[in-house]
Design brief:
There is one protein chain. By secondary structure, the chain is α+β, with helices and mostly antiparallel strands. It has one domain. 33% of the residues lie in helices and 30% in strands. The chain contains 4 helices and 8 strands; from the N terminus they run E-E-E-E-E-E-E-E-H-H-H-H. The strands form 2 sheets. A 6-stranded antiparallel sheet has the order 1-2-3-4-5-6. It is globular. The structure holds zinc ion. The site of zinc ion has 8 residues, from helix 1.
Length: 171
């Protein structure tokens, strides 16, 4: 990521073709500002960026997760904000009306039946527990697939991102 670089992306609902979101970014030394919209509501989030030396020379850049400040390669958009995958599990919102929102609501319902960190509550049958867990994984996979297609779409439109492992590459 070079300081001073900026740009934007738009993404659309695959079935309706309607634009469902957009994101603009601008990079300054040490941080990146994201401007995006969720359900037509504009949002801004500034993410710190850090740099580490790379074994093969050069440097690798990382996002600093805004919730627990760990260094991560990929940030996920959930509940209207970007954070790392781990933290996104902890931060909840289920108000979105889109397909991803439905998977969150479905997952939220299941998680309410489970203990802390998805532990099996006392007295719950193993088969019930397995079924609930697989529902959660199904929701996670659906969202991962949606996210991957979103990122792939962006890379198609912005080939320079491919050379930018910190931004959209999976570790
Ligand atoms: Zn985090």
């Amino acid at each position: 990521m070079q300081a001073g670089r900026s740009g934007s992306w738009h993404w659309t609902n695959q079935t309706t073709g309607k634009e469902t979101g957009s994101i603009g970014y601008s990079v300054r030394p040490g941080c990146m500002t994201l401007n995006y919209s969720i359900d037509d509501q504009p949002r801004t989030q500034t993410i710190s960026v850090s740099e580490t030396g790379c074994n093969f020379g050069g440097t690798r850049q990382w996002f600093i997760c805004p919730i627990r400040f760990e260094r991560v390669a990929v940030l996920y958009l959930r509940a209207g904000r970007f954070a790392c995958r781990h933290c996104q599990r902890l931060v909840y919102a289920s108000q979105s009306s889109d397909a991803l929102g439905r998977t969150w609501r479905r997952q939220h319902k299941v998680e309410k039946k489970l203990g802390e960190d998805w532990h099996r509550p006392k007295g719950m049958h193993q088969t019930t527990y397995d079924r609930l867990l697989s529902t959660i994984w199904d929701c996670e996979e659906k969202r991962d697939a949606a996210l991957c297609s979103f990122l792939a779409g962006m890379m198609d439109r912005h080939p320079s991102l491919r050379a930018d492992p910190m931004l959209w590459g999976r570790p």
